[in-house]
Amino acid sequence: MITSRLTFIVLATLLAFALAPAALDAKRKKRPYQPPLKIVDVTTSPVPFAPGDGPMTIAVTVELPKNVDRFDVLEISSLISVPTRRSIRFLVNRQPLDRVNIEDGKPRMKTTLLWDGKDQTRQHVRQGTYSYEVRAKLMAREEGFTKVKIVSPFARGTLDVSSP
Q1: For residue 71, which phi and psi values (nearest 5 degrees)?
Q2: 56 with 44: CB under 8 angstroms?
Q3: What is the CATH number for 63?
Q4: What is the CA radius of gyration of the chain?
Q5: What is d(CA 147, CA 137) in angstroms, rounded to the nearest whole number?
Q6: 152 is a domain residue
Q7: What are phi and psi of 6, to 5 degrees?
Q8: Is residue 80, in this structure, part of any structural domain at all?
Q9: How many CA atoms lie within 13 A of 81 on its CB side?
Q10: Is 6 inside a domain boundary?
Q11: Which residue, 72, 65, 63, 64, is CA-closest to 97?
Q12: pTM, whole model, 2 decimals?
């Protein structure tokens, strides 16, 4: 009799632990994940781009967290690759948070990357469609080094290159 009562208590406890998370999840509101640092816009110009006629501008708008330190640094990087996913060029720009704008109540910062239309061997790329990935990083300066605080999700797109 004691063993059957003990078995019942153990089974009831296990069942309660198994059902409790489901009951809690039903009460919680599901909100989509909002990253604290995100890329809200990427534009390229000129379209189409002809290597040798000047650089391509990749303009990036980033939404920052509400509380940023004015000594932090924003790093924007882009990896340009061919359709086979072989990378051909890496671009990067670091800048202090001295030009933060408030748009729609949210702190945003705009920056640009320039691509000369050349690959990793410094040769002009051929005509075609190329892929890019842009990422933002919020970095803190500490004791002479910069340390990554927050990384945004990638923004991806394509670039059309015409003949030079």
Answers
A1: -90, -5
A2: yes
A3: 2.60.40.10
A4: 25
A5: 10
A6: yes
A7: -65, -40
A8: yes
A9: 12
A10: no
A11: 72
A12: 0.74
Q: Which residues pair with 4 in a beta bridge?
A: none
The phi and psi torsions of 73 (rounded to 5 degrees) equal -125, 140
Count of domains observed in the chain: 1
Tokens for 4, please give them.
Answer: 């059957």
109: left (phi over 0), alpha (psi -120 to 50) or beta: beta
Enter the tokens of residue 49: 């781009």
Please, are residues 41 and 67 in contact by the beta-carbon 8 Å criterion?
Answer: no
* Cβ neighbours of residue 65 closer than 8 Å, sequence gap 6 or more: 36, 37, 107, 138, 150
pLDDT at position 5 is: 64
Do 88 and 119 form a contact (C-beta atoms < 8 A)? yes
What confidence score (pLDDT) does residue 30 get? 66
**CA 27 – CA 85 distance, rounded (Å):** 44
Q: Is residue 135 part of a domain?
A: yes
Tell me the three-class secondary structure of 46-81, residue by residue. CCCECCCCCCEEEEEEEECCCCCCCCCEEEEEEEEE
Where do runs of H (alpha helix) occur along the chain? 2-27
pLDDT along the chain (164 residues), means of 10: 62 60 59 80 93 92 87 92 82 87 87 92 90 94 84 93 82
- Expressed as residue numbers, the domain containing 149 is 38-161
